[in-house]
Amino acid sequence: MTDAAHSASESAGANTGLDINAIMRLLPHRFPFLLIDRVLELTRQKRIVAIKNVTINEPFFAGHFPGTPVMPGVLIVEAMAQAGGVLLLTEIEDRENKLVLFTGIERAKFRRPVVPGDQLRVEVTVTAWRGNAGRMEGMAFVGDKRAAEATISCRVVDRSRSRAGNAEASAESE
User: Residue 123's closest CA among 136, 110, 135?
Assistant: First the structure.
């Protein structure tokens, strides 16, 4: 894409995608918990399409399930949340000091198993965003078949605040 085309697409709110290095600059997640490999489409403040290449090398396949590997549904929902996090963090200037945390999962449905060799396409659309809290609709596909869907709620917090909250919780449990 030329610089002029890139500028035109940005002014329209669209971006053609992000590679793994750009994703890792936005999200704090790392192996084995980074669950998106590439962003194919990003429309600022509205929608993102990302992919996860599912391989037998994923650590969760060792126990889920031996001899019949199936990607856990909760990790498919986590991939949706991570894609949504990328979408939201692109809008935050001091993103290195922020985290996007899950606050709820509703209406999660799992329609087909996701197995090694599949390419999971994750589509997330923002349905509400006010201040530092939002709601997104996520869908995951393998090819043209829907594998899962969920409504995800989240909140953007300061990383220092989330660390302080963890310290308080640890102190209370001692």
Answer: 136
Q: What is the mean predicted confidence (pLDDT) over 22-34?
A: 95
Name the pLDDT band for 165 (thresholds 50, 70, 90).
Answer: low
Which positions are annotated as active-site residues? Answer: 64
Mean pLDDT of 68-92: 96
Which residues lie below 8 Å from residue 102, measured CB to CB, with a gap of 6+?
A: 81, 152, 153, 154
**CATH, residue 161:** 3.10.129.10
Distance from C-alpha of 92 to C-alpha of 129, rounded to nearest angstrom: 13
What secondary structure does DSSP assign to 106-168, as a single string? EEEEE-S---TT-EEEEEEEEEEEETTEEEEEEEEEETTEEEEEEEEEEEEEEHHHHHHHHHH
Share of the chain above pLDDT 70, in %: 83
What is the tally of structural domains in the chain? 1
Q: Is residue 135 over pLDDT 50? A: yes
Total-model pTM: 0.84
Measure the CA–CA gap between 29 and 117, rounded to whole angstroms. Answer: 22
Domain range for 77 is: 3-173
The β-bridge partners of 151 are: 106, 137
161 vs 131: which has the higher pLDDT: 131
